[in-house]
# Entry
Amino acid sequence: MMTYQSFKKRVFEIVDRSKPGDTASRIFDVSIISLIIVTIITIFIETFDIPDKLQKAIDNFETFTLIVFSVEYLLRLWVSPFLYPRLSPAKARLKYCFSFIAILDLIAILPFWVPALYPFDLRILRVFWLIKANRHTRSMRKLFVIMKRKKTELFYSLFVLFVLLLATSVLVYHFESNAQPNIYGNALEGLWWSISIFTFAWPGDVYPITIPGRLLGGIMAIIGMAIIAVPVGIISSGFMESAEKSSKNKERDVKLELLNQIKEELDDIKKKVDKSGDKE
# Structure
């Protein structure tokens, strides 16, 4: 008979990341991902003029989804001591509540609970459900793991980008404020232009007209290609390292399996030799 602790552990195994062979956990992951995808589709549908019946069906589906996510959040909070076995149950639950993924889960259910208490429409927060799918898909989990592993390098590259954005926004303000006071009225408006240049999203209605401003824009465009490529390269190298590690693990598993087969064959041969010796 299943005890309380064994039942609780089984719930943890189901709601946690699915492992090979765990059908119940896999079904749970697929169901949550399906709910997220369908809900994101309904967000797009709601931007059109739709019949009242369809809107009512969408509202009912949204309520059902939010109830499911609320139950999921409570279940994860309940079994969180298994996630942090070295901590006490209270500390484990507290640590889980302030973890990044738990905060995303909470944001996902806020659109349901907050309007019930206060007259705020927070349904726009449903777009965060797509990020919530991270815990249920291996590809998204791998991306977050790589970003966490490379967080130091990413921080330095983003910090350099931030400093350059501030510096260039001040420079373009000084170069263009006299020539275009309505467009470059302050450094913050220059910051928007700098972000657009570095990300190659050129704002067609905003551009420098002075020679120093145009020269700065050209330099920024060239530097921007290198700066933006740095975090992309860091993440790409992380994927390469992860793929290489996975390949080595698979190769190791194959070798271990071959060694086990050889050991079994040797054991069988030894048993046969022992039997023949006993007969003699």
